[in-house]
Task: structure prediction
Amino acid sequence: MKKIFTFLSFSLLCFSFYPLQAQEDSIKKQKEINTIVEILAAVNVEDSAYKSIATQAKSHYTEFNAAWEKLEEQKLSKMRIWRNQELEKINLSTQNLFYPFSGPDFLNAYLLYPDCDNYLMFGLEKIGELPKLNELKGVFLTNYLKNVRGAMSEIMSRNYFITKNMMTQVSAQLKGVLPILSIFVKRFDNEILTIKKVFIEKNGKTTLTSLGYQSKFNLVTGLQIVFKNKQKNKIQTLYYFSTDVQDLAMANKGELLKFIKSFPEKSAFIKSASYLLHGGNFSVMRNFILSDTKSVVQDDTGIPYKFYNDQNWYVQLFGKYARPVKDFNYGYQTDLANRFNVDKTIKPIDFTFGYHWWTDKSSIMKCVRPEKK
Result:
C-alpha cells in the first residue's frame, strides 16, 4: 500500500510539473519574441540581458527612428487627427476590420482603426518567420536590419508598399511579412503575446500550430499575432493570410469567406490596391465586401464609386480626385470625377493617401451601407 501511495504521489508531482514547465517555456518564448521585435523596430529593449544587441544596432536605431519621426510628422499625426474627426462613429461600432490586398500594411489599419478586436488581412507575400535571438549579432545583424529598412523604405516615405518590390524584398531577404507586421505592432506600443501559424479548414474554422508546422493538406495558410496594448490593456488579434483571391482561385476557397464572415460588426479598409476591384477578375471579393461589411474607407483604387452609388450607400468624399498614376492605364472614374467637381461638401485633407504621394491630389471615400430593412 505504501508503494502504491508513493507511486501516486510521484505521478501527481510529475503531472503538476509539466503544465508549470510549459507555462515557463511560453513566458520565455514570449520574452524572446518581444526582444527580437524591439530590436527590429528600433525601440527600447526591455530585457536588460539583451540591451547590448541594441547597442550593436545603433546605426539601425538612428536611421529607422529618423524615418519614423518623419513619417509621424508628415502623415501619421495628421491622419490621427482626421481619424478622430471623421471616423469616430465608425470606430465606435466596428469590432473587426477587414483589409483586403493589405500586404503587411498593419500601419494604416491600426492607425485608423486602433480599437478593433480582430484585423483580417491578406496578400500574396509569404508569411515568413522572425530571426532567432542568438542570430542577432555581427554581420548577420547588420545585414538583416539593413534589409528591414530596405523592405520598409517605401511605406516609410510613401505610406504604401509596392507589391512587386515587396515580393522580392520580403521573400528573398526576410522570408516573409512577419518581421514587418511585428514591427508595426510593436511601434504602436503593443506587447506581443503569441505568434502562431493558422490554417483555415474547409468548414471555415481555424487550426493553430507552431510557425514551423507544415500541413500535408492544401489549406489557406496564415499568421495569427495576438497582442496587448500597454495603454489600453486590451487584447487584440491580427490575422494575415498568404493567398490569391482572384475569382478563379476563390472557386475553391469558400472557407476563406466563411472565416471572414464569422466576424460580426465588420468594416473594410482598402488602400493602394492596384485598382484590382475595378476589374472582372475580383468580382467575388468585391461582392463580398459590399454584402458583408457595414462601412468601407478607401481611396480610389478600391471598389469603384458606381457600385456604392447603385446600391445607395452613403458616400462622403475627402481631398482631391486625380487620374490614376502612370503605372496604371485603367481605373479612371468619370462619375467620381464629376462628383468631386460638383460636390461642395467635400472636405480637404492635409496628408497624402495612396499613390499620389508627392502631390496634394489624394482622395478618400467614406462609404456607409444603408440599414437593412
Strands lie at 96-99, 118-123, 190-200, 206-209, 220-229, 234-242, 266-270, 295-298, 314-319, 363-368. Residues 2-40 form the longest helix (39 residues).
